[in-house]
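Narrative of activities, Objective 1.

The group set out to show that a structural description can be obtained from nothing but a protein's sequence at a throughput compatible with the screening campaign. Below is one input-output pair from the validation batch, recorded exactly as produced.
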Amino acid sequence: MKIKKILDWLDSTLNVQAFDDVSNNGLQIARTGEEVKRVALAVDASRRSVIAAGEAGAQLLVVHHGISWGGGIKRIVGSEFAVVQAAIDRNLALYAVHLPLDAHPKLGHNALIAKALKLKHVRPAFCYHGNVIGCVGVAPDGQKVGVCSGGAGEFAVAAKELGCSRFVTGEASWGEMVAAENVGIKMECWGHYDSELFGIEALASAMKDELGIETLTV
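Output recorded for this entry:
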């Protein structure tokens, strides 16, 4: 399959252009050749995930956390060099999608965490850089629960203000934990990585089903 077809599908399905993101979403490392037979997906664009994708025979790696943020890469040294070198050595393209994968109503981390918690009456909540990325819903026990994956401990107080008695995220700073305690909301930290596997796994399945291309998570 042509890589452009895959990239266009990702851009469209995840509505990438609608987000003002700290991540430079989209293709971050190109490759020579247009054909892609296998796509790997991972939470992070690490040297480990790049090597694993290459060893699995993938030509494209799709990640939640890429290597280019804000003003982009000013110098290819250190950590960024390790990833770029590993990708070029394996002729592996890299595509990143950050906030759009947090916020997607079906494939997003937060929608899927809400589903795992069996929340009802789910609606969007929690604005980050002008983008609403999390959600709130009602648990089977009647509690109102806020959900925002990754490092979103800052939203615990906002969740309390929305009437939540419980807030689920990936990780929080000590100050954010104290603030949550101060306002009387229970904050659960599932782990940054674990809270963002949800969308990666769902995206892998959707790409396989809708594009008919082989996918795997690394």
